[in-house]
Amino acid sequence: MSRRWQEALGPWFVVLALFALWEGVVIAARLPSFVLPAPTEVFATLVQFAGPISQHSLHTLMTTLIGFGFSVIGGVALGAAIGASQVAYKAVFPVLVGFNSIPKVAIVPVLIIWFGIGTVPAVITAFLISFFPIVVNVATGIATLEPELRDVLRSLGASKFDILRKVGLPRAAPYFFASLKVAITLAFVGSIISETVGSNEGVGYLMLQASSRFQIPLVFAALVVVAAMGITMYAIFAGLERRMTGWATRGMDQAAYATGH
């Protein structure tokens, strides 16, 4: 089997092995479904409640993408601003680290007081939790631009904005697209946290309602759907990363194929 097929089929084999192990443990330990449902029961529940799960999942996907979109816009703008200035980088970065250290679940009740129960707190939470990785990666990519290259460009008459636009931002592109893969998964976490704390729609709300009625298979079915959405969005941004920043890893890929690793 070629390396390309191994890379394509490898994740599926791992997933199937994990589900088989999960099924075996449930059967061997004779665990009741309200403790740990078997995968077969989870997928049966997924089919049974396909309508409600689809409705709540689409709502979660919408809030997640909206919050993520705002985080991309704000993250690139702020990352470029602080990455282009060493003073701003050293001044703002500790504040960002401190803000990111605050558990977002502690902010959700405040957001609900301000904006009420519903979509807005979920969007803001998704934005807050996915904002930091984008800012840090964009700022790092721009700030690590070689000083010698800056000096050469300035000697050729380039302004600071020209350096940022023509060299800094392309230099930060691999960092940026790598951060998107992390940020989108965190955005899902933010949306579901908010929906669990205070919402009347979404996967978090569905899981909370199901667990209160001891419908644990439904909880796991919702988790499977969330995992599938996260993997899909991750794969989309991984594809964009390969397409947009292939030049950054082309040499590594060629070396790997040449050596067979």
Task: Classify the helix fraction into a percent range.
Answer: over 70%
Biggest beta sheet attributes: none
The CATH superfamily bears the name: MetI-like
Overall tally of domains: 1
Average pLDDT figure: 83
Q: How large is the count of helical segments?
A: 11
How much is the radius of gyration in Å?
Answer: 22 Å
Q: Name the beta content range.
A: under 5%
The CATH topology is given as MetI-like fold
Describe the protein in words.
- There is one protein chain.
- By secondary structure, this protein is an all-alpha fold.
- It has a single domain, classed as MetI-like fold (Orthogonal Bundle), CATH 1.10.3720.
- Helices cover about 85% and strands about 0% of the residues.
- It has eleven helices and no strands.
- The longest helix has about 40 residues, at about 160-195.
- The chain is globular.
- The two termini are about 15 Å apart.
- Mean pLDDT is about 85; it is low at about 250-260.
Output the keywords.
single chain; 261 residues; mainly alpha; MetI-like fold; globular
Quick structural gist:
This protein has 261 residues and is mainly α. It is 84% helix and 0% strand.
